[in-house]
Structure to design on (254 residues):
């Protein structure tokens, strides 16, 4: 049955930034598809963990602040997850941050924090998990890119640079690891109603301008991404690698 190829029974997935928003949606979707979940978060992910346990899945939470975590810290977190849940099959690199300011006034601290969280942690996690996936000859890495992996945006130079880099890293790892049964893809969400966009949505003129350009006429939600996360994590996408899939309500084609 074709639907069986979307099942994730017996798999273990790591999801970063899964206390709310897109990461929480991804973690719940993968659990509903059958996977046990490791939650890697700076904040409290108890709500996500409780929902996963209610599905009858195993869940393990690890604290990690990607703004300060070293590569050794990240390796230790991955080793703990492997020890507690027995294996790792899927990594969702979702955690991210954004700082808004004109480029001419953008602070070095903001630049460094955004690049550290949005890019460095993606590489360090992908390297730590990837070597395990390569050893077992299978696995899935799903990065969260952005519309600003394709466009320039305004007032977010570090975020734009980081998300362009995530797109490039996705392709680079996909090329290296494809022959070992490990796929690396990315999802590029459109304008999503999350904490990261709260300031934009509070600006009535900007919010109206954005919605008017989205062919579907609305902001996206975490639920809009869930099917794509499951697809890329599953055997149904076994011949898909190096792709960046926009889930944007038509934003890019407008």
């Amino acid at each position: 049955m074709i639907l069986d190829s979307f099942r994730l029974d017996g798999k273990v997935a790591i999801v970063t930034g899964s206390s709310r928003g897109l990461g929480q949606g991804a973690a719940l979707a993968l659990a509903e598809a059958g996977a046990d979940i490791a939650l890697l978060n700076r904040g409290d992910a108890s709500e996500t963990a409780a929902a996963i346990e209610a599905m009858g899945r195993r869940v393990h939470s690890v604290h990690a602040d990607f703004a300060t975590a070293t590569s050794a810290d990240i390796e230790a977190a991955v080793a703990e997850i492997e020890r507690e849940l027995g294996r790792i099959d899927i990594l969702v690199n979702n955690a991210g941050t954004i700082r808004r300011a004109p480029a001419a006034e953008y602070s070095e601290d903001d630049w460094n924090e955004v690049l550290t969280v949005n890019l460095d942690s993606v590489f360090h996690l992908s390297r730590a998990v990837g070597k395990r996936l390569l050893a077992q000859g299978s696995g899935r890495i799903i990065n969260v890119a952005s519309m600003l992996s394709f466009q320039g945006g305004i007032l977010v130079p570090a975020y734009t640079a980081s998300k362009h880099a995530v797109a490039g890293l996705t392709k680079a790892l996909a090329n290296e690891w494809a022959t070992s049964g490990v796929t690396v893809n990315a999802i590029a969400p459109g304008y999503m109603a999350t904490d990261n966009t709260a300031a934009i949505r509070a600006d009535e003129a900007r919010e109206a301008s954005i919605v008017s350009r989205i062919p579907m006429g609305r902001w996206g939600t975490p639920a809009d991404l869930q099917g794509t996360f499951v697809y890329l994590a599953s055997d149904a996408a076994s011949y898909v690698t190096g792709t960046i899939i926009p889930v944007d309500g038509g934003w890019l084609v407008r």
Notes: The domain at 2-192+223-246 is CATH 3.40.50.720 (Rossmann fold). The two ends are 37 Å apart (CA to CA). The chain has one domain: 2-192+223-246.
